[in-house]
Amino acid sequence: MVWLNKHSQTYLALQKFKRNFWGVSSFVYVVLISLVAILAYIIAPDNSVNANQMALSIHSKPPGFKAKGFYKTAVVNENSTWFLTGKSASAEFVPIENYQLKNDSLFYNTYGISQTKFDQVIPLSEVSSKNNSIIHKQTYWLGTDKYGRDLLSRLLIGSRISLSIGFVAVFISLLIGISLGAIAGYFGGKVDQAIMWLINVTWSIPTLLLVIAITLVLGKGFWQVFIAVGLTMWVEVARVVRGQFISLKNEQYIIAAKTLGLGHRSIMFKHILPNAIAPVIVISAANFAAAILIESGLSFLGIGAQPPIPSWGAMIKDHYSYIIVGKAYLAIIPGLAIMSLVMAFMLIGNALRDALDVKS
C-alpha cells in the first residue's frame, strides 16, 4: 500500500503528526469521547431515553450527592436496541427520607420530609428488587440538574449531539464545498464567476444569522439543525478547493492527462483533488469545532435540539442563572465539556496543518 512507503508524503505526514504531543493527545481525547458517545446508554447511570428521569425532590444537588430510595417496577422493555436509543421503560428511582416495611407494603416519606409519620405507601409488588434489596443508594457523581435529573447521564448522552452535529455538518460542507469549488476552479470563466458570486453572497451573511434563518425555514428539531449548520459551512471549503484547482490544473501531469483524452470528471476527482485535499482536511477539523459551537449557541437560544434531548448548550441555558446562587457547576460542567472538545479539534487541526506542510 502507498501509505506504508516510508518515502511517501502520507507516511512522512503521519510521522510528523505523531511527534506533535498536543495533536496526538487531542486525537486520543476525541476517540475516547466518541467511544463514550457510542456507549452512552450502557455506561450512564440513567439509561432512560434522553436520561430524562426526574426527581424534583433532589433537584440542584452538588456533585457526589447520595440519596437512598427504591425503584418502581418498570414495564418490560421489548426494545432490543436500547443501548442505542435508551430504555423507554427503565425503572424509576424514587428518593426517600424514612421508610418502613409492613404488611407487604413500603411506607415512606419523600426526600426532604423528615417527619415521623409516613405520608406515602406503595405495595411491594410495585417495587423493583435488585440484588435482593428493596432500598438502594444512588450516587450522583456530577450532581443533579434543576429537574432532579442525573447530570452525568445527560452530559454523556449529550456528547452524541455535539459529535453528530460535527460529523453531519462537515460531511455536508465537504460535499457542497468540494463540488462547487472544483467546478469553479477547473472550468473558470462564467461558471467560476457565478459560483464565486454565490460564495461571496453567502460569505457576507453572518453565520449565526444564516443558521437561524435556515432553522426557521426548516423548523426546530434535531436533524433540521444539522442541515442548517452544514449549509452554512461549505463556503470556506469551496474557496480553498477553488484556489487549489486553479493552481494545479495547469501542472504538467494534468496537461498530459488531457492530452491522453481523459474526461473532465476523471481529471478533477482522480488527479487534481487528491493533491488538493491536504488544506481541506485542516479546514474540516476547524469546521468540526465551529459546528459544535454553533449548535451549542442555537440550543442556548432555544432553536437547537429541543427538550428533553440533552444538548450541552441547552444545559447551559437551563442553569446559567444558577451561577449567582452558588451552584455555578450546573452551567460550568457542560461549558467545560464544550470548551475541551472544541479545543481538541482545533489542536488536531493545527497539528494536521504542521504535518501536511511540505515546506516544514
Described by the principal axes of the CA atoms, the overall outline is elongated
Helix count from the secondary structure assignment: 13
CATH level-four homologous superfamily name of the largest domain: MetI-like
Radius of gyration: 27 Å
CATH class wording of the largest domain: Mainly Alpha
- Briefly note the CATH topology name of the largest domain: MetI-like fold
- Percent of residues in helices: 55-70%
The main pleated sheet reads as: 6 strands, antiparallel
Descriptive report:
Belongs to the binding-protein-dependent transport system permease family. It is a multi-pass membrane protein. The chain crosses the membrane at residues 21-44, 161-187, 194-216, 222-241, 272-294, 328-352. With 360 residues, the chain is α+β, with helices and mostly antiparallel strands. It folds into two domains: 2-34 and 153-355, MetI-like (MetI-like fold); 53-149, no CATH class. The chain is 57% helix and 10% strand. The protein is built from 13 helices and six strands. It has helices at 9-18, 21-38, 40-43, 82-85, 151-187, 189-204, 207-218, 222-230, 234-248, 252-259, 264-301, 312-319, 329-355; strands at residues 65-72, 92-102, 105-110, 120-123, 127-128, 136-140. Strands 1, 2, 3, 4, 5 and 6 form a six-stranded antiparallel beta sheet that branches. Strand 2 and strand 3 (105-110) form a beta hairpin. It is elongated and about 95 Å long. The mean pLDDT is 88.
